[in-house]
Amino acid sequence: MKVVIQKVTSASVSVGEEVISSIGRGLCVLVGISKEDTEKEIDYLVRKVLNIRLFGDDERKWASNVVDQGLEVLCLSQITLYTSLKGNKMDFHNAMSPSHSQPLYQQFLDKMRQQYLPDKVKEGRFGATCVVSINNDGPVTVILDSPQSKKQPIGDD
User: Fold this and answer.
1) What pLDDT is attached to residue 155?
2) How many whole angstroms separate alpha carbon 68 and alpha carbon 71?
3) What is the pLDDT of residues 74-121, one digit of tens each?
4) Stretch 1-21: mean pLDDT
5) Measuring CA to CA, which residue among 112, 147, 138 is closest to residue 34?
6) The predicted structure's pLDDT at residue 149
């Protein structure tokens, strides 16, 4: 499992003309699920997302996390985090199929809400073509892989 975390001043996700979710200051988290992922990877990454110190003040730039600050989190499923290229064509053989990844993605959201404030954890629409608006703060972007994901070859074949 892989997440891309972006520290944001605001973020929103739209499907068609409808804004389906938005947050103020906090984190936008893109979540990719590989074909090898299990609940173990979910536990690891939820803990990391909620505890990573990306916030602070002028004196202590990286002193607190999203929970300490009481900020919001917008999570979006992102199958393209597990693509490789075959020439110029994307190949999704490392990604878990949508029918299998949707329950794991829902478990990721459920655990985020269990370990934080449920009303602070927002989501996009699984499998939908979305427009994501992100106002990156910093800019700060962090990519995290679960320990299992680090063992998998990702890239050109």
Assistant:
1) 45
2) 8
3) 999 999 999 999 999 999 999 999 999 999 999 999 999 999 999 999
4) 97
5) 147
6) 59
C-alpha span between 70 and 23 (Å, rounded): 12
What are the structure tokens assigned to 101, written together? 């990844």
Tokens of 5: 């975390």
Asked whether the beta carbons of 146 and 47 are under 8 A apart, the reply is no
The residue type of 147 is: P
What type of residue is 149? S
> 3-state SS string over the chain?
CEEEEEEEEEEEEEECCEEEEEECCEEEEEEECECCCCHHHHHHHHHHHHHCCCECCCCCCCCECHHHHCCEEEEEECHHHHCEEECCEEECCCECCHHHHHHHHHHHHHHHHHHCCHHHEEECCCCCCCEEEEEEEEEEEEEEECCCHHHCCCCCC
- Cis amide prior to 139 (ω within 30 degrees): yes
β-pairing, 89-91 vs 84-86, is antiparallel
